[in-house]
Amino acid sequence: MFQRSSGILLHITSLPSLGGIGDFGPAAYDFADFLHASGQKYWQILPLNPTDFVYGNCPYSSPSAFAMNMLFISPELLVNDGLLKKDELSTLPTPLVADKVDYNTVIDKKIKLLDQAFGRFKNSEQENNDFVTFCERNSFWLETYAAFVIFKKRFNGMIWSDWPDDIRAGREAILKEFRAKFVEDIKRVKFFQYIAFKQWALLREYCLQKGISFIGDIPIYVNEDSADVWGNPYFFKLSAAFKPVFVAGVPPDYFSKTGQRWGNPIYDWERIKASNYEWWMQRIRHNLNLFDVIRIDHFRGLMGYWEIPADEKTAVNGHWTKGPGENFLAHLRKEYPNLPIIAEDLGLITADVSEAMQKFNLPGMKVLHFAFGGDLKHPYLPENYPEQCIVYTGTHDNNTTRGWFNCDALPQEKEFLKTYLKKEVREETIATDLIDVALKSRAVLSIVPMQDVLNLNEKSRMNTPGTVLDNWEWRLVTGSLTKNLSQMLRQLIKKSNR
Fold it and tell me: Residue 9 — pLDDT band, cuts 50, 70, 90?
């Protein structure tokens, strides 16, 4: 699937776009140019799905596994389309802190501007064949998503399982009446999806011309309060009242005596299998139309998953349940013989997961921050890598490498690093040191977070797992992508034969 190469991890929100949040506009094209100049072949991003305040704007918690975040729409490109006027962009916010997304301000200001674009669209001749074709091609998820968004607003954000009986059950007569009543509201939701997907397709085409491929990300589970569960309750373990009977999580371990109770509804894999994995196949196809490779987050959940009774407050009293396993992967391989999938296999992995990855030739992940505890046989030490793996200095859930060295690395880890690198280790150079280690390793692909390329400290961390506040906010500062930086990366690439 991969040739020896490298890439950078940077989410769309982190681009220094106009208006306080990254989008699919000029800053994204500038970053593609930087990747090309730096000798990179991959741009890895986080999920592009909508986010909300309830989950701290986390891209892994979304009301839809198919829709795109409308905040990624570029107002500047809407000017090019004639849907906005250039002077109207002055209403977009200027961030108080250059390297942070202020979601409250961005959402308020940007959506008002996007609504102006929709106003022009609905009153113009631009409601053309492309829009109609997009809506028809994506109707398998778009109709449900549009209805879900409008019902959520109508019921003041109430969770769908508490909606009136006929609506939560998705009675066709009720939905037909609803569509006739809310024609313009439905069109508005579809318009934003149409524009977001259109702008993404143009960006992806540009990247492909530059020799850059996208690695996308699929969270294995979906939110309980989502269009996915409302529209497909049959595929989840729900009660007669449409409430989860079991929820997802992981068992108690060294890091948590009570485990982690994530709260996502559990799939009814028997029913999904009986449908020839219909919903999951739609999801995979959808994502492989958007990205060149996809990473499945919590891949081990396909082999076996921790199932927690929904009335339990912690993960302690859960139990392991067998997942669809190799049967699902074999079904996928019929349609995608090369299986362009990265398995997120971090943490404690059982033999069945490793065997499936080997059988289906799926690369796993290695994270250098976890490698230096002193065990020479540790699977994350480069000497122990199989070639078919992806090495990261850290991921979006890790501290930056400089921050890790500053705040998280234990004294014995620093001592081991000194021996391993055969040199003094310092905060100022540790990021470059580990980038060099990653690039020189035998891993077929090396991915480095942009914060490490810029040698940023813990203040630029993207996410701290288990917390809600102050995550997913970091942004590139305009002017960071210098020629010297791209030359430095290109030299490292050349030295490591990538």
Answer: very high
Which is catalytic among the residues 52, 143, 228, 344? 344
What does the DSSP 8-state code read for residue 14? G
Tell me what the mean pLDDT of segment 294-303 comes to. Answer: 96
Q: Is residue 278 part of a domain?
A: yes
Residue 153 in any domain: the answer is no
Number of domains making up the chain = 1
Does residue 252 lie within any of the structural domains? yes
The residue-averaged pLDDT of 292-300 equals 97
Active site residue 30: no
Q: Which residues constitute the domain of residue 345?
A: 232-352
Is there a catalytic annotation at residue 397? Answer: yes
Kindly report, residue by residue over 167-220, the tens digit of the pLDDT: 998 888 888 888 899 999 999 999 999 999 999 999 999 999 999 999 999 999
**Contact predicate 431/401, CB 8 Å:** yes
**Statement: the pTM of the whole predicted model exceeds 0.85:** yes
Take residue 259 and report the two structure tokens written for it. Answer: 């485990």
Q: 182-219 in b/e burial notation, b at 16+ Cβ within 10 A?
A: beebbbbbbbbbbbbbbbbeebbeebeebebbbbbbbb
Q: Strand, helix or coil at 263?
A: strand
Q: What are phi and psi of 446, to 5 degrees?
A: -115, 130
From residue 256, give the alpha-carbon distance in Å to each of 58, 260, 311, 346, 495: 22, 7, 20, 16, 42
Please say whether the beta carbons of 65 and 59 come within 8 A. no
pLDDT value of position 1: 78
Of these residues, 397, 415, 436, 458, which one is catalytic? 397
Asked about 470 being catalytic, the answer comes back as no
pLDDT confidence of residue 171: 82
| 434-to-256, 333, 441 alpha-carbon distances in Å | 29, 35, 10
Q: Tell me how far apart the alpha carbons of residues 41 and 214 are, in angstroms, rounded to a whole number.
A: 9
Angle of CA points 28, 344, 230, to nearest 5°: 80
Q: Let me know if residue 298 belongs to a domain.
A: yes
The DSSP bridge pattern shows strands 293-297 and 319-322 to be unpaired
Dig out the tokens for 88 from the structure. 């109207």
